[in-house]
Structure to design on (963 residues):
């Protein structure tokens, strides 16, 4: 990844070629172009035109729809991108762009977009209760706070229409028929034809049949018919167009003032810019909506004592866990690689096969199996190896950390064993021989000659192993779930929680989710891993000078 | 120089083209949504229902009937039950969510707080359902879903080892000890989290519910009752059972089931999900109420599954009709019971199921007396502290009363 592409170096070499010195003439260029066109073949050209045509058609359609639905920014982007694609593939030359385009497109969609989006979420209050936009929140509050008037009867309902305006025609339990619309409170009508409790005909109105009701169901379920001239008497509403009920609404939304008023208590809830309607006493109405909160989530992570304390201890353990995991697996893997690389060892093939086995099992499954084996009373480890001693492997804070490291050693050493074996075999035996001729003892030869050479090729792998273990959610979650819980901490955090499990718990565990805070944590993790990797890569560069 | 500029230009173009693909994806969503808006009034309607694999076949029949009667197509989308809540919460605001989805009642707090679920009014039909089912699906006085099944734990008894049902906890332990097997009784626990759900009947028998109820019968987050005197009594009882070895956090649910199936214990406190294993092992199985350890009844939690309506549904009339008339019909409720093996929520089907199968009857009778699991979002804060504290008490890590009171304080702190 660090090596530079050879392309720029090639061109000066090409320029030194005798024929390359003379600038190509016009005829020459023309001939080249013809040759290129001929080599493509007309069938390919047709396919190319068809595919690009289809793509452009989609782009034009998408752009039209977008402009029509008032999204000029996205629509404009579609137009620009469509033009760019056509330009890249229709013009001559620019071969790299033609190959780069699909790759870069997927990179943008599956990587960059995800990264940017979670980065964006870190600056919002997205989470439980702040899930959508303000219109939805207002809609939901109104919907959730309509209350059926206690003990009010069920009105059998028909929907009638006159001049496009909808009315409710209801029959009360006594059999009297009433009619009313959004503007006209309920009043009794005579002369209605009632069949099986439901009105089928009303003078001067058309009664809708079920198909017509379904066509206009949006309007019907929105319709609220005042029960009487007194607005506090409530509204008749329906949800299924068969029965209507008398509702009162607990909250009244004032669009002008942008406030919600509780009609029982008179409390006014206003939008204070916190992503929810809140009362002067600071009580919030749920649901709220998503807003940008700037650096709030980062500030919270750094200042709120219930977050800061656990975050600090978890960060320290994360570094310890990642470093120790890499160190232990590397040492064991290297040791075994050296042992099994020795020509005096018999049946090395079979040993190697056995050594690689842990690597062949899915990590999360192994972690689950280990969790069972480390059970205090019935686990294999205590029962068979320690003769029934009840060692609390997973429930004692320190032992749980040790268990995590041991299981990760078991899971991780085969990988290190593999790469060390590969790297060892790439080092010529003559080097060791030469060292021994110079009087070096075997360990000296290993430490001074082989190990530095090994590290040249393995250092990048060790750094990536560090980054991997830094985010090793599977192991921690499956083995201990982050536990044992710290009963003194006010939040859900345990002794073996690493940063990524903390993020997972904040974002996805429990009913109260906080995607904004979790994304802020994710950015912090990214910065930590990135910094460590950059420093480590810088340090290991000095090793490369050995070659 | 030349190759470099070409490369840079190529990359720039590629980036821009990538942006097209990106925006094209975005625009897809937008068109679908807008198209839906525009067509809403003209189309005869099209219901989208999220359902899990087990329920899908039954709903297929209900949907076919509905389409035949009304001309409205019902599109059933299969979802993994466990994913429905999160998917629903994230997709409804984008306009991509379904009209109706299957779910469990204790999701309600989350769904309501996120504003993605709409109340339904079933009117007089409410009388046809089991009380516990309607209570469970009610939140702040509104009904939010149409329940179809009630699930709860009960006491499984191996009648060969214990011919009679125990009247009290002490009697159960005595019978268990007389049976001369490995364990007097078992309940699956976890070493770090214990299992508040399975231990709740005992906690209730000490009169220590988590929350009190408000005037409408719903749970009231402001009235946290878990830390009251009864809770402390329960904590001390837990410590006692732990020290006597009657409760053992090293025996998890799987081990407990295995031991019951192998005849190592006459009693197992569990739900209907472990019944097939016991029947496969030819155990003479009886289902009894859970005996009380304290002075009150040992009421377990009831989990009620049902179907709920999206707050953004464009087809409220059709959706409500489908919910009340079809999913709420005895035929469908019974069919759902037959595939799920859980007591139906509709009283008519419930009675039929009880007469039909004595194991379902056993669970159903316990369930009728059960309390709905709290559906308020504050319950999340309770789970966080509850299990770990129980585990610590059972394992004898400190004074039970102190641990319990600190837990109650932590919960109260987390709720505020």
């Amino acid at each position: 990844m660090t090596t530079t592409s050879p392309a720029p170096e090639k061109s000066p070499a090409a320029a030194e070629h005798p024929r390359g010195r003379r600038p190509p003439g016009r005829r020459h260029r023309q001939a080249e172009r013809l040759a290129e066109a001929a080599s493509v073949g007309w069938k390919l050209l047709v396919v190319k035109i068809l595919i690009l045509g289809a793509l452009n058609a989609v782009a034009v359609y998408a752009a039209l729809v977008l402009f029509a639905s008032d999204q000029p920014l996205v629509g404009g982007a579609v137009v620009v991108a469509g033009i760019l694609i056509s330009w890249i593939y229709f013009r001559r030359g620019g071969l790299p762009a033609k190959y780069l385009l699909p790759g870069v497109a997927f990179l943008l969609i599956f990587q960059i977009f995800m990264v940017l989006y979670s980065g964006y979420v870190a600056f919002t209050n997205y989470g439980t209760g702040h899930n959508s936009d303000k219109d939805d929140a207002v809609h939901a509050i109104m919907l959730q706070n309509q209350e059926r008037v206690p003990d009010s009867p069920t009105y059998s309902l028909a929907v009638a229409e006159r001049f496009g305006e909808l009315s409710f025609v209801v029959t009360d339990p006594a059999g009297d028929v009433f009619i009313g619309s959004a503007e006209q409170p309920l009043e009794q009508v005579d002369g209605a034809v009632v069949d099986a409790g439901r009105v089928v005909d009303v003078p001067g109105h058309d009664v809708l049949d079920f198909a017509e009701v379904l066509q206009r169901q949006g309007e019907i379920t929105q319709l609220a018919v005042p029960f009487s001239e007194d607005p506090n008497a409530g509204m008749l509403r329906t949800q299924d167009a068969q029965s209507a009920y008398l509702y009162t609404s607990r909250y009244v939304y004032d669009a002008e003032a942008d406030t919600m008023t509780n009609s029982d208590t008179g409390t006014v809830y206003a939008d204070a810019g916190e992503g929810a309607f809140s009362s002067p006493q600071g009580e919030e109405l749920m649901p709220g909506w998503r807003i940008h909160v700037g650096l709030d989530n980062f500030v919270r992570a750094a200042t709120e004592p219930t977050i800061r304390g656990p975050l600090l201890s978890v960060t320290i353990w994360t570094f310890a866990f990642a470093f120790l995991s890499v160190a232990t697996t590397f040492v064991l893997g290297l040791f075994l690689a050296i042992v099994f690389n020795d020509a005096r060892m018999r049946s090395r093939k079979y040993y190697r096969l056995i050594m690689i086995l842990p690597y062949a099992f899915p990590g999360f499954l192994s972690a689950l199996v280990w969790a069972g084996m480390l059970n205090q009373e019935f686990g294999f480890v205590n029962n068979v190896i320690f003769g029934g001693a009840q060692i609390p492997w997973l429930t004692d804070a320190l032992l749980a950390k040790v268990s995590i490291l041991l299981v990760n050693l078991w899971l991780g050493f085969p990988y290190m064993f593999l790469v060390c074996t590969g790297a060892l075999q790439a080092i010529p035996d003559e080097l060791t021989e030469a060292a021994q001729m110079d009087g070096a003892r075997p360990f000296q030869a290993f430490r001074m000659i082989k190990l530095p050479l090994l590290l040249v090729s393995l250092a990048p792998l060790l750094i990536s192993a560090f980054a991997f273990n830094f985010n090793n959610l599977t192991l921690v979650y499956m083995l201990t779930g982050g536990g044992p819980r710290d009963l003194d901490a006010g939040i859900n955090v345990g002794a073996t929680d690493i940063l990524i499990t903390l993020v997972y718990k904040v974002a996805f565990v429990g009913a109260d989710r906080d995607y904004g805070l979790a994304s802020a944590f994710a950015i912090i993790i990214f910065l930590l891993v990135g910094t460590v990797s950059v420093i480590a890569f810088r340090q290991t560069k000095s090793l490369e000078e050995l070659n | 120089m030349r190759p470099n500029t070409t490369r840079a230009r190529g990359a720039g173009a590629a980036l821009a083209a990538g942006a097209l693909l990106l925006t094209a994806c975005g625009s897809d969503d937008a068109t679908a949504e807008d198209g839906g808006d525009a067509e809403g009034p003209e189309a005869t309607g099209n219901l989208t229902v999220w359902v899990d694999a087990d329920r899908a076949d039954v709903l297929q029949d209900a949907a076919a009937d509905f389409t035949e009667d009304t001309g409205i197509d019902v599109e059933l989308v299969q979802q993994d039950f466990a994913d429905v809540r999160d998917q629903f919460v994230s997709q409804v605001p984008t306009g991509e969510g379904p009209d109706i989805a299957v779910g469990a009642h204790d999701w309600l707090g989350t769904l309501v707080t996120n504003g993605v679920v709409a109340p339904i009014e079933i009117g007089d039909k409410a009388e046809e359902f089991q009380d516990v089912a309607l209570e469970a699906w009610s939140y702040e006085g509104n009904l939010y879903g149409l329940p179809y099944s009630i699930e709860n734990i009960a006491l499984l008894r191996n009648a060969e080892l214990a011919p009679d049902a125990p009247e009290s906890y002490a009697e159960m332990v005595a019978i268990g000890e007389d049976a001369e097997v490995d364990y007097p009784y078992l309940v699956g626990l976890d070493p770090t989290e214990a299992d508040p759900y399975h231990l709740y009947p005992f906690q209730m028998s000490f009169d220590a519910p988590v929350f009190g109820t408000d005037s409408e019968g719903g749970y009231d987050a402001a009235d946290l009752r878990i830390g009251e005197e009864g809770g402390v009594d329960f904590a001390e009882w837990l410590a006692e059972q732990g020290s006597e070895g009657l409760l053992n956090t090293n025996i998890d649910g799987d081990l407990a089931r295995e031991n019951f199936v192998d005849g190592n214990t006459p009693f197992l406190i569990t739900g209907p999900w472990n019944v097939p294993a016991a029947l496969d092992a030819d155990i003479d199985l009886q289902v009894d109420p859970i005996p009380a350890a304290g002075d009150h009844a040992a009421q377990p939690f009831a989990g009620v599954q049902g179907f709920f309506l999206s707050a953004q549904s464009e087809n409220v009339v059709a959706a409500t009709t489908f919910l009340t008339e079809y999913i709420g019909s005895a035929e469908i409720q019974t069919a759902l019971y037959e595939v799920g093996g859980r007591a139906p929520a509709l009283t008519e089907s419930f009675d039929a199921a009880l007469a039909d199968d004595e194991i379902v009857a056993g669970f159903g009778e316990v369930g009728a007396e059960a309390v709905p699991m709290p559906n308020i979002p504050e319950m999340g804060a309770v789970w966080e502290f509850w299990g770990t504290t129980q585990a610590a008490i059972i394992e004898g890590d400190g004074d039970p009363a102190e641990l319990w009171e600190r837990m109650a304080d932590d919960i109260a702190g987390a709720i505020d």
Q: What stands out?
A: Chain B touches chain A through 91 residues (CB under 8 Å).
